[in-house]
Design brief:
single chain, 16 strands, 3-stranded antiparallel sheet, alpha+beta, Creatine Amidinohydrolase
C-alpha cells in the first residue's frame, strides 16, 4: 500500500504529512528501516514461492500474514483505515490496493503483491509484479518496462537531485513504448509512519521539485498501464483499476538518499 493519492484522500494522511515536514533519518533509524525492508522483501520471496494458478488471493494473503507474524513483525496494511488484509494483491487491470478475497488467480494473469512490514516500530514497503504461467508479449513488455523504469529512477537519486528527476526517468522510458504513467497515486516518504512527506510523482520534468537530501527515506513505485493513465476506484473504496480495463504493472522499493546515490532498503 505504498501508493498515496495525490490529493491525499482516503488512505489517511499523518499530521506530519499535512504539514509537509520531511524528516531526515539518522543512520540508526535507517538501519531499522533496512531491517524492516529486508523482511518485506523476504515476504515477497516467500509469496512468490507459493503463488500459483488456481489459488485465491485470500489464501495467498493468509500465507503472507503468517510469514510476517512469524518473524515478530506486523503487517502494516491490516486494519489500516479499515483495510481488511495483510497485503494488497492486485490482478491484471487492478492498479493497486486490491483487497484479497475470492478472486482466483489464473494462468496468464499478472499479480501485483504489495507488502509493508512494521518491525521494531519502523516500516518497510515494497511491491513486485509476478507473471503466472504464460503471458503474451505485450504483457511481458509491460512488466519489464515497469521494472526498468524503477531502476532508471533509482539511478537519479542522490543528495542534491530533485523529485522531478525521478518522474522524468520513468515517464521518458515507458511512454515511447506506448505505455502510460498513473498520476493519481504516487510514492511517499516512509519511516516511523506508513506515509510521510514528500509525495514522489512518477512523472515530471528534470531539475524540478523538491531537492533530495542525505537521510531522506522514500518509496518509488511506478504504476504503468497499457492504455490510459486514468484510473477509478471500485465501490469497496480501495481497489484501484484502470479506467479502460487495460493492464497495469507496478514495482516498488524503499530507499535512503546518500551523499553519492542511494541505498535500496528493500533489495530483491
Amino acid at each position: 500500500m505504498g501508493a498515496m493519492m495525490t490529493e491525499g484522500e482516503g488512505l489517511g494522511v499523518s499530521p506530519a504529512r499535512k504539514n509537509q515536514v520531511v524528516y531526515i533519518k539518522s543512520p540508526e533509524e535507517i538501519s531499522k528501516i533496512r531491517r524492516s525492508g529486508r523482511l518485506a522483501s523476504q515476504t515477497l520471496d516467500y509469496a512468490a514461492s507459493k503463488l500459483k494458478a488456481g489459488m485465491t488471493t485470500k489464501a495467498l494473503d493468509k500465507l503472507i500474514h503468517e510469514f510476517i507474524v512469524s518473524h515478530k513483525a506486523t503487517p502494516a496494511t491490516l486494519n489500516y483505515n479499515g483495510f481488511p488484509a495483510s497485503s494488497c494483491i492486485s490482478i491484471n487491470e487492478e492498479v493497486c490496493h486490491g483487497i484479497p478475497g475470492k478472486r482466483v488467480i489464473m494462468d496468464g494473469d499478472i499479480v501485483k503483491i504489495d507488502v509493508t512490514t512494521i518491525l521494531d516500530g519502523y516500516f518497510g514497503d515494497t511491491c513486485r509484479t509476478f507473471t503466472v504461467g504464460t503471458v503474451d508479449e505485450r504483457t511481458s513488455k509491460l512488466v519489464a518496462a515497469t521494472l526498468e523504469s524503477l531502476d532508471l529512477a533509482i539511478r537519479t537519486v542522490r543528495n542534491g537531485s530533485r523529485l522531478g528527476d525521478i518522474g522524468y526517468a520513468i515517464q521518458s522510458h515507458v511512454e515511447p513504448m506506448g505505455f502510460s504513467v498513473v498520476r493519481k497515486f504516487v510514492g511517499h516518504g516512509v519511516g516511523r509512519e506508513f506515509h510521510e512527506p514528500p509525495n514522489v510523482p512518477h512523472y515530471g520534468d528534470k531539475n524540478t521539485g523538491m531537492m533530495l537530501k542525505t537521510g531522506m527515506v522514500l518509496t518509488i513505485e511506478p504504476m504503468i498501464n497499457t492504455g490510459t493513465w486514468k484510473v477509478r476506484i471500485l465501490d469497496d473504496d480501495w481497489t484501484v483499476v484502470t479506467a479502460d480495463g487495460g493492464l497495469s504493472a507496478q514495482f516498488e522499493h524503499t530507499l535512503a538518499v546518500t551523499d553519492d546515490g542511494c541505498e535500496v532498503l528493500t533489495g530483491y
